[in-house]
């Protein structure tokens, strides 16, 4: 089920929960997690935006990701654990998690935020993912949040671990190209296949107009990172 919001169709909280596989006893918590302050400004009947839940979810994620890494790597020292936790909870990574479940499509945004591309903005998606985490915590506690977040962490752990640093492949590639005086790489979607709920994207990365790598994934961010990783290998940097 979707309802019209301005010129866009927004997935209802209940439909979003069913699609993602999250159960809620109190759906008002989920509705609040999906409500950006710009929507509250234009709809006085809405009671609260998601900023307090964002604050709570940020703390819950820091704790759970830290505990998950602590148990996953019993021999790892504090420094590397801290860097890996930072990589897993940084804005870009949480925004990527949000993209994987199309969280942007369920957000309640004001007209201005909607028309300016808020549904794709990494900072907004990151905040919404943190708010969603806070809502799950208040509704069902730490075990339910852990069941929700662990699969996301497992899917990216290898990349974070193999990198040995907090920078992702796109950042590393851009640092190298800029150091060579070649400017920033550009990325282009060359294919998008599958149904809306399970899209597969293929991206290509270019440096000064020349193709250096391709990659695929379930979101544009994941595909772009795969393309950047292949470019690093082609350049002998990975």
Write the topology of this structure:
Elements: E1 2-5, E2 8-11, H1 13-20, H2 27-33, H3 37-42, H4 51-72, H5 78-89, H6 91-100, H7 111-115, H8 122-140, H9 142-163, H10 169-179, E3 186-193, E4 200-207, E5 210-217, H11 220-234
Helix pairs in contact: 2-8, 4-5, 4-8, 4-9, 6-8, 8-9, 10-11
Structure, described:
The protein has 238 residues and is an alpha+beta fold. The protein is 58% helix and 13% strand. It has 2 domains: 2-163, Ribonuclease III domain (Ribonuclease iii, N-terminal Endonuclease Domain, Chain A, Orthogonal Bundle), CATH 1.10.1520; 169-234, Double Stranded RNA Binding Domain.
Span between N and C termini?
45 Å
Proportion in helices: 55-70%
Say which CATH homologous superfamily of the largest domain is assigned: Ribonuclease III domain
Specify the overall morphology: globular
CATH topology of the largest domain: Ribonuclease iii, N-terminal Endonuclease Domain, Chain A
Task: List low-confidence stretches.
Answer: 1-8
Count of alpha and pi helical runs: 11
Helix/sheet category: alpha+beta
What is the residue-mean pLDDT, rounded to a whole number?
A: 89
What's the CATH class of the largest domain, please? Mainly Alpha
Largest sheet report: 3 strands, antiparallel
Question: Rg, please?
Answer: 19 Å
CATH level-two architecture of the largest domain: Orthogonal Bundle
Number of strands: 5
Largest sheet strand order: 3-4-5
């Amino acid at each position: 089920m979707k309802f019209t919001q301005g010129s866009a169709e927004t997935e209802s909280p209940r439909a979003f929960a069913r699609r993602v596989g999250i159960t809620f006893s109190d759906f008002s918590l989920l509705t609040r997690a999906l409500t950006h302050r710009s929507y509250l400004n234009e709809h006085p009947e809405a009671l609260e935006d998601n900023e307090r839940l964002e604050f709570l979810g940020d703390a819950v994620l820091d704790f759970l990701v830290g505990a998950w890494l602590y148990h996953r790597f019993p021999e790892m020292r504090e420094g590397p654990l801290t860097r890996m936790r930072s990589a897993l909870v940084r804005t870009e990574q949480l925004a990527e998690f949000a993209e994987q479940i199309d969280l942007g499509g369920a957000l309640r945004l004001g007209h201005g935020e909607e028309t300016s591309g808020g549904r794709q903005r990494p900072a907004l998606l990151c905040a919404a993912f943190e708010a969603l985490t806070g809502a799950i915590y208040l509704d069902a506690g730490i075990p339910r949040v852990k069941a929700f977040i662990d699969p996301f962490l497992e899917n990216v752990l290898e990349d974070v671990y193999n990198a040995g640093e907090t920078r992702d492949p796109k950042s590393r590639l851009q640092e190298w190209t800029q150091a060579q005086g070649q400017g920033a790489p550009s990325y282009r979607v060359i294919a998008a296949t599958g149904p809306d709920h399970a899209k597969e994207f293929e991206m290509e990365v270019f440096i000064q107009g020349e193709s250096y790598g391709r990659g695929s994934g379930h979101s544009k961010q994941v595909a772009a990172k795969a393309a950047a990783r292949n470019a690093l290998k082609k350049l002998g940097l990975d």
